Amino acid sequence: MTAEALKGVPEPTLRRLPQYLHYLIEIQKAGRPVVSAGHIGRELHLDQTQVRKDLAVTGIVGRPKVGYETDALIGAIRDFLGWNNTKDAFLVGVGHLGAALLGHDRFDKCGVRIVAAFDKHPQRVGTAINGRDVLPIEKLSDLAHRLHVHVGIITAPAEAAQTIADQMISGGIRAIWNFAPTTLDVPEDIIVQNEDLYTGLAVLSNRLVEALKTVPS
Amino acid sequence: MTAEALKGVPEPTLRRLPQYLHYLIEIQKAGRPVVSAGHIGRELHLDQTQVRKDLAVTGIVGRPKVGYETDALIGAIRDFLGWNNTKDAFLVGVGHLGAALLGHDRFDKCGVRIVAAFDKHPQRVGTAINGRDVLPIEKLSDLAHRLHVHVGIITAPAEAAQTIADQMISGGIRAIWNFAPTTLDVPEDIIVQNEDLYTGLAVLSNRLVEALKTVPS
DNA sequence: TAGATTGTTAATCGATTAACAATC
DNA sequence: TAGATTGTTAATCGATTAACAATC
Predict the structure, then answer these.
(1) How close, in Å, is residue A63 to chain B by CA atoms?
(2) Contacts of A102 by beta carbon, 8 Å cutoff, 6+ apart
(3) Fewest C-beta atoms under 10 Å: which of A5, B136, B191, B216?
(4) Which DSSP state fits B182?
(5) Residue B168, Cβ neighbours under 10 Å: how many?
């Protein structure tokens, strides 16, 4: 627990936890009070030892022969991910993707509530999307400080991303969810989560080209 | 090359290739004809040995003391990713995210052109988004066959995702870019690339909660 | 009790990083 | 030539998987 707290939990484990959560909520809806690691593993195509190790990081303990309590497990995962502790966020770049994220009301169940959006285009400023005002980018830093906002979401073009990140950091933002396809230079205590869509497309496209080579249709 | 072709290139390598590409295009715009692995690594915060190994999978060879030719390297990466060979795609689920992807015209530079969209809601069917018709989901399978579409994009709710995947596969689709937060059951020759946004949010949120614990602001 | 399931320790596997010879 | 950079082989590191004792 001590060394773990220093290095943090492995990223692959963190990325699997929401998968468990989705499945557990189905289990819960179906009214099943307990579930075993083997059962979860079969459903999600994961090794059951891995499921146990992953769940262990949340501090949950199961009962031999029985399994894990569904409700307690859901609570433990949500707590561990910080999803029970909603943090305010600013979004910058109200293009197609930015607007889509603003329209999506389910992130607040995942610890993040977008409270305002910013853009540098005057024609977008002053509008509101799904109840959130679009403000001029110049106000970001000051407002982030005043409202104690710690999360920033970048859905702007790559060219603008570094400048936006700098403004976020000077406003006291500690974690950046970056959808721009660029590597941000930030101090080491700033958390950056890159969500570049081209990355997944690269894997898909290469695998498909290889598959079509082997078995031409 | 032979064993490599069987197992495929490691996913982490494939995921870094678009990063290299973005930076190389900057280099190209700046008019620099050659670039070294060390230079790329410094820019993208990667070990230079890793950069060389990654680039090697594309078949490119550099010149000692000189580096890699920018133009040739860009071409080799794009070829390797299949980004010079555009594949038609169908998108299913025209909600906020689906509409955002339809509005984004840059995927065709990454090997994928969305040629039609599908939805099960009658009020969405018959409209067009950014030039692509929204068709009833019942037509997907037949049309995929007739138009030889091999890529499917799922931007529908999790509950609908498995059914949509089944319809795609029965229509001859070989690769699925899945934005729904669910594990799809598919035959092993079908390529699935999951792009669940909650996954990245889990990493960000947990890291932020841990950071705020250590240094409360 | 016997059987099923957990939790942990050890082995394996794959990716990253280091070392270094080859080359221009 | 000397210095810089590539490409490859070896070492390290971390995550996954296997083995198994503990437990209800």
Answers:
(1) 26
(2) A91, A94, A114, A117, A129, A130, A132
(3) B216
(4) S
(5) 28
Instruction: Give the model's pLDDT for residue B6.
Output: 62
- The string of pLDDT tens digits covering residues A38-80 is 999 999 999 999 999 999 999 999 999 999 999 999 999 999 9
Q: CB-based contacts of A153: which residues, under 8 Å, 6+ apart?
A: A89, A90, A91, A92, A98, A101, A114, A176, A177, A179
Dihedral Cα A50, A55, A56, A59, nearest 10 deg: 170
Contacts of B15 in chain A (CB under 8 A): 199-200, 202-203
**DSSP assignment of B25-80:** HHHHHTT--EE-HHHHHHHHT--HHHHHHHHHTTT---BTTTBEEHHHHHHHHHHH
| Helix extents (H) in chain A | 2-7, 11-29, 37-44, 48-56, 70-81, 96-103, 140-147, 158-170, 197-214
Query: Which of A 28-47 have CB under 7 A of nucleic chain C?
Result: 36-38
CA distance B119 to B155: 10
Taking an 8 Å cut-off on Cβ atoms, the answer to whether B191 and A205 are in contact is: no
Pick the closest to residue B20 from B48, B50, B40 (CA basis): B40
Contact A182, A158 (CB under 8 A): yes
Nearest residue by alpha-carbon distance to C1' of C16? B50
Please name the residues in contact with A126: beta carbons below 8 A apart, sequence gap of 6 or more: A133, A134
Nucleotide showing the shortest C1' distance to residue B8 CA: C14
> B26 CA to C9 C1', in Å?
50
pLDDT-based confidence at A155, cuts 50/70/90? Answer: very high
